[in-house]
Amino acid sequence: MIVAERKPFNEILAMVEPFEKILVIGCKTCVTVCSAGGEKEVGILSASLDMARKKEGKGIEIKEVTLERQCDPEYLEQIRGYVGEYQAILSMACGAGVQFMAETYKEKPVYPTLNTKFIGVALEQGVWSERCAGCGDCVLDKTGGICPIARCSKSLLNGPCGGSVNGKCEIDSEVECGWQLIYDRLKALGQLDKLEEIIPVKDWSSSRDGGPRRIVREDLRL
Amino acid sequence: MSEFEPEIIAFCCHYCAYTAADLAGSMRINYPPNVKIVKLLCTGKVDVLYLLKAFQAGADGVYVAGCLEGECHFLEGNLRAKKRVERTKMILEEIGIGGERVEMYNLSAAEGIRFAEIAKEMTERIRNLGPNPIKGGVGRKE
Predict the structure, then answer these.
(1) In this predicted complex, what is the ipTM?
(2) Same domain for A99 and A143?
(3) Are A83 and A189 in the same domain?
(4) What is the CB neighbour count within 10 angstroms for residue A138?
(5) pLDDT tens digit string along A157-199?
(6) A216 found inside a domain
(7) How many Å lie between the alpha carbon of B107 and the closest alpha carbon of chain A?
(8) CB distance A52–B95 less than 8 Å?
(9) Residues sharing a CB contact under 8 Å with residue A111, sequence separation 6 or more, in sequence order
C-alpha cells in the first residue's frame, strides 16, 4: 500500500485560515489501511479543526466525506453535486489523490493534509516499513525477493558495501543491511550462486529519471 | 470562577469503574453531579474520536476509567485505552484545549470510595482549569 502520515496540525490549520466552509475528504483505500486518511482520521481532523477555530472565535463549517478512492474519476465525481457550496477542499488522500482532486475541480483550492511516505507493508499494527521504490523494472527475481533498490540505502545492485556491519546499515544501527538480507535469503533458498551474477547497470529511464510515467493499455480502453 | 461548574464525561468499563460507581451509590457515598457516565463493555472500546467528540460537544473534561493494569476482563483493553488517552492529550495540546483535560484512571469494581475520589479529583482539576475554551466561558447548565 501507499503509506502516508498526517501533516502537523498547525500546518493544516494555517492552510484553512482564510476559509469558513470547507470539505474534508478522506480516501478508503491505502491511507485508510495505514490509519492516515480514512473515515476515522477525517473525523479526528474535522473535530480538531472545528475546536481550534471555535477557540479562535471564528467558527468553520466542515463537511466530512470519505470516498472509495481519490485516484479514480468516478469516485471524485460523487462530490460534484455539492462541491460548489464549499470554499476549499482538504484532501486526506496520498499525493496522487490530492492532485487528481485538484485536476478534477480546477476552480477549487485543494490542500494536502498528509505527507505521502512510501510504498510499504504493515509489519504489525501501527508499524509500517518501505518495500518498493517503484523503479519500473523489478529485479526481485535476482535478489531472493528482497529489493536492493528500496532496502539498500545506496540502492546498490551488487552489494553489500563496506558499510554493512553485523547485518546492519552504516546509516543507522537499527536499519538492516538490504544486501545482508538478500544474502541470507539466497543462502536459505540454496541459490547463493545467483550472487556470482553481476547485475548490469540499471536503466533508470523506467524510474523517475525518465520523467512522469504513464501506462496505456489499449485492450482496456473504452 | 466560583460560578463555573464543569461538565465532565466519564467513559467507564462495565467490569470495574461502572460497578465501582454502583457500589459508591450502595454505600451512599457522594460524588460530584458534574460527572456523567458513559458505560462501555471495556475501555478497549474507547477511541480517540469518542474523546474528541465529547470535547467538541462541549465537555470541559473527560476521563476513562478502566480495570487495574493486568486485570482487564479482555486482557489488554485498558492498556489500549491508555495509549489512546495519551494520543488524545497530544491532539488537545495541538488544538489549544489542553491535554490535562483528559485522563486515564484504573480501579477495581470493589473501589466505590476510589470512584468517588476520582470524580472529585477530576472535577476539582477541571474547575481550576476553567471552561472548555471552545464554549466561550460557559460551564455546566443546571
Answers:
(1) 0.90
(2) no
(3) no
(4) 13
(5) 999 999 999 999 999 999 999 999 999 999 999 999 999 999 9
(6) no
(7) 28
(8) yes
(9) A12, A15, A16, A88, A89, A90, A91, A98
